Amino acid sequence: MKKIIFSLFFCATFSLSAQTTDAEINQIVDQLSLEEKVYLVIGTGMDIPGMTEESNAPQAVVGTTKDKVAGAAGTSYTNKNFGFPAVVFADGPAGIRISPVREEFPDETFYATAFPTATSLSSTWNVDLAQEIGSAFGREGKEYGVDFLLAPALNIHRHPLGGRNFEYYSEDPVLAGKITAAFVNGVQAEGIGATIKHFVANNSETNRTELNTVVSERALREIYLKGFKIAVEESNPWAIMSSYNKINGTYASENEELLNNLLREEWGYEGFVMTDWFAGKDPVAQMRAGNDLLMPGTNQQATAIMTAVNNGELPEEILDRNVSNILKQYYKTPSFKDYKPTGKPDLEGNKKIARKAASEGMVLLKNIDKTLPLDQNAKVALFGVTSVETISGGTGSGDVNKAYMVSVTEGFENAGFELDQDLLSKYDAYVKEERAKIPPKEMFFEKDILVPEQTWTTGELETIAENNDVAVFTFGRTSGEFQDRVVEGDFELSEEELQVIRNISNAFRSKNKKFVVLLNIGGVIETQSWKGAADAILLSWQPGQEAGNAIADVVSGKVNPSGKLPVTFPVSINDVASGKNFPGTVLDTTAPKSQNPLAGVPSEEIYEEGIYVGYRYFDSFDVETSFTFGFGLSYTDFEYSDLKVNRDGNEIKLELSVTNSGETAGKEVVQLYVNSPQGSLEKPEKELKAFAKTKNLKSGETEKITLRTDIEDLAYYDPGTNSWKLNAGNYRFIIAGDAQTPKLEEELFLEEKEVKTTQDLFNPEIAIEELTRN
Ligand code: BGC
Predict the structure, then answer these.
(1) How far apart are CA 338 and CA 628, in angstroms?
(2) What gap in Å lies between CA 318 and CA 323, rounded to an integer?
(3) DSSP characters for 35-55?
(4) What is the percent of the chain with per-residue pLDDT over 90, rounded to a whole number?
(5) Is 515 a pocket residue for ligand 1 (Cβ < 6 Å)?
(6) I want to staple 662 with a disulfide (CB 3.0 to 4.6 A). Which of 536, 628, 636, 773 is the partner?
(7) How far is the CA of 163 from the centre of ligand 1 (A)?
(8) From CA 523, how far away is CA 519, in angstroms rounded?
(9) pLDDT value at position 597?
(10) Mean pLDDT throughout 447-475?
(11) How far apart are CA 76 and CA 657, in angstroms?
């Protein structure tokens, strides 16, 4: 009787859900039956060709509305007694991934904005812009009926060949964490939840569901967890997605140390944790570990949890705890607030934000004699198959069903450049012919196949160089979920591609004409061997649906480039420290392979480079790079002056001035690196601790910049004592234009200090021989 009255009460007061308190939610949990609870901790499943199963959920209690938003990655069960609506989860980091069509609205479309990919966004080093982009995602998701965005993703770019690096921000956790926090704040301010993923140490795709990541506690805490900690502290994401891999022997989703001891107890996280799709093996262990929600949800999981509670193996209080974690966030969602999505987000407005962010995320890597911006009257010979088939983003769950794509060719035309029409029509015909030879993808997760580069004879190039003022060559790469990239023909350029670059360069340079290379790539490639052949190189990354327009904005000088590299471009792939064991070793090479193309085989990836990831390695071991972390040119120059460093308790405040000393208006990224005194545990040469971006400074204009860091940020982790510590000595605060270009420096003496003690977690089951400078 009590239950019925309560249920009626709740159904009737549904729209007051925003005011629902935690205590009320706990009361609701007390009223739920075991079945109702179980169908709150699993999703309604996913239709995968060949894997579809009918739900065995009791229809009287819960219901499914699997197709509430067509093409969304996941949905929760409805609850009939309590009137809980279905909650919708949709990817991803580059835009809302849903189906553009819905059966119930045959005359309407639901295309989403393809924003620049994550690496492009972090290249802006602009947290305000990241927040603006997050808000645009939030508004678009909300109007399309999405409650939880399955983004942002902030795994560390541990190795250039990581197949999903385009979905991730940086090799540095501070940059990744700050951009994530800003993005999440933007999303959640619009009333939908963000899901930060993939927690944690999911830095390669090969065998990802069977991979054991073996990593020291220090590297985990200082590198792989740090960005997540920043995001939890600064943006309180409603949800976190645990990763596919194991961490030191235990699946992330079954890892109590990770999800309870660290995330909840140490960091005070208040949201809920969901699995990655079909991740982990043991639903009962997942429940125990604090992995509240199993996605997309299977019948077997429901049965296993129900049985475990009934036979006493899983205390019902654990289920209650998880349900309560979930409901506390569900109550904030548009669906629970009975919001009626319009299906009509402001796509025009979001298009403008996408274009602005795309151009701000571009990094000018080279610009001899002011090759760029191009003269508006220049006759441009536009080369490269990617000028025609320009790449918006990568494949897999990070893909977006967008309404259109602006190619480089179209962008240049829109900007009013005079293009060599004969050359264009040859490219068009060639791309059409070659594309027809490539079979269409059978499964959504397959990588896009690019048309091979078109080659030209010396004679043809001579004529083209004769008829035009400048050559622009767009070069593309793509990658995606489920597989890592390869060296040959991917990280490295193929022989044909190198030939094309050399030949165009020779033809134009011999006539005193310039050669520009545009990089439309998702991750790092080899640049050392060919960069000398170009007069200018603009790295556009994969900049979303407005690619061509945004590239033309920078090339024409409408936008002064202000992006800086969030990753290092090494001279050779062999120079990367993590290369020694990326992407892991198969443990039993004779083990049978599953029929399921998505299944992996047991393997292990030992992070022997420890804390020496990205520039921390190149810098500390004096290894030359092709383009260093934090690097990026501008059409103007900046001067740095008047650095003051002050300590106030635990906070260290740095003030300085940045002046635009050139002739063009522009923005500058101010980077703070700290060199810490060595102690019993070695430290990297320097580490990024804070950054800021100036406003668009006019020629001669000065801006005062304030950067803040604190004692805890400067500490290193000592696994011997399970604590964050400071060594006594002089700390060098380096204000820099990039990791190799110091501008101003100040030293501050800090005393030895134990900043914080922690629990003893994540002990690797095998000894790791970590890289050392000694
Ligand atoms: C990916 C997640 C994604 C999920 C749902 C998984 O394969 O790893 O990032 O959110 O699918 O599409």
Answers:
(1) 50
(2) 9
(3) HHHHTTSBB-----TTT----
(4) 91
(5) no
(6) 636
(7) 14
(8) 10
(9) 66
(10) 96
(11) 52
CA–chain centroid gap for 24, Å, is 36
Residue 707: predicted pLDDT:
98
CB of residue 242 inside a 6 A radius of ligand 1:
no
Quote the CA–CA distance of 262 and 643 in Å, as a whole number.
37
H helices of 347-393, in order, are 347-360, 385-388
Give dist(CA 73, CA 91) in Å, integer. 7
**Residue 97, ligand 1, Cβ within 6 A:** no
Residue indicated by tokens 């209080």: 317
**Average pLDDT, stretch 728-733?**
98
Q: Average pLDDT in the 39-63 region?
A: 85
Q: Which residue has the tokens 């992995």?
A: 291
Question: What is the distance in A from the centroid of ligand 1 to the CA of 397?
Answer: 5
Pocket test for ligand 1, best of 44, 277, 444 (most atoms within 8 A of CB): 277
Choice between 329 and 47, residue whose per-residue pLDDT is larger: 329
Residue nearest to atom 5 of ligand 1 (CA): 73
Strands 514-520 and 470-476 come out as parallel
Pocket test for ligand 1, best of 276, 400, 401 (most atoms within 8 A of CB): 276
Residue of 428, 452, 446 lying closest to 483 (CA atoms) = 446
For residue 396, the ligand 1 atom closest to its alpha carbon is 7
Residue with CA at minimum distance from ligand 1 atom 8: 276
> 163: which 2 tokens?
């197949």
Is 716 touching ligand 1 by the criterion CB < 6 Å? no
What is the DSSP code string of 281-304? S-HHHHHHHT--BBSS--HHHHHH
- pLDDT given for residue 50 in this prediction: 61
**Is the CB of residue 91 below 6 angstroms from any atom belonging to ligand 1?**
yes
Q: From the CA atom positions of the chain, what is the Rg in Å? A: 26
pTM of the model: 0.97
- With cut-offs at 50, 70 and 90, classify the pLDDT of residue 443: confident
Residue found by looking up tokens 């208040």 in the block:
270
Q: Kindly report the protein residue whose alpha carbon is nearest to atom 4 of ligand 1.
A: 277
Q: Which of 325, 280, 317 is nearest to 300 (CA)?
A: 280
Pocket test for ligand 1, best of 44, 89, 91, 243 (most atoms within 8 A of CB): 91
Please enumerate in sequence order all residues whose Cβ is within 8 A of that of 440, keeping only pairs 6 or more positions apart, or say none. none
Which atom of ligand 1 has the smallest separation from the CA of 167? 9
pLDDT mean over 212-239: 98
Q: What is the pLDDT of residue 49?
A: 64
Which residues, listed in sequence order, are joined to residue 655 by a DSSP beta bridge?
A: 644, 706
Summary count for the chain: helices (H), strands (E): 21, 31
Write out the two tokens for 449.
């196949």
* Whole-number pLDDT of residue 304: 98
Cβ-based neighbours of 564, under 8 Å, separated by 6 or more: 123, 125, 363, 630, 631, 632, 669, 671, 738
Q: Which of 147, 276, 292, 738 is catalytic?
A: 276
Assess whether 760 carries a catalytic annotation: no
- C-alpha distances out from residue 725 to 55, 75, 224, Å: 52, 44, 18
Ligand 1 contact, 687 CB (< 6 A): no
Q: Name the closest-CA residue to atom 9, ligand 1.
A: 397
Q: Which residue is associated with the tokens 């791309």?
A: 431
Residue 743's alpha-carbon distances to 13, 501, 567, 698, in angstroms, are 60, 35, 20, 21
Alpha carbon 684 to chain centroid distance? 24
DSSP assignment, residue 457?
Answer: -
Tell me the mean pLDDT in the region 369-395.
Answer: 97
- Return the ∠ at Cα 645 (arms to 643 and 649), rounded to 5°: 160
Ligand 1: which of 150, 164, 207, 446 to mutate, most ligand atoms within 8 Å of CB? Answer: 150
Instruction: Provide the strand spans (E) within 122-238.
Output: 148-149, 193-199, 211-214
User: Over the stretch 670-728, which tens digit does the pLDDT of each residue have?
Assistant: 999 999 999 999 999 999 999 999 999 999 999 999 999 999 999 999 999 999 999 99
The mean pLDDT value for 506-511 works out to 98
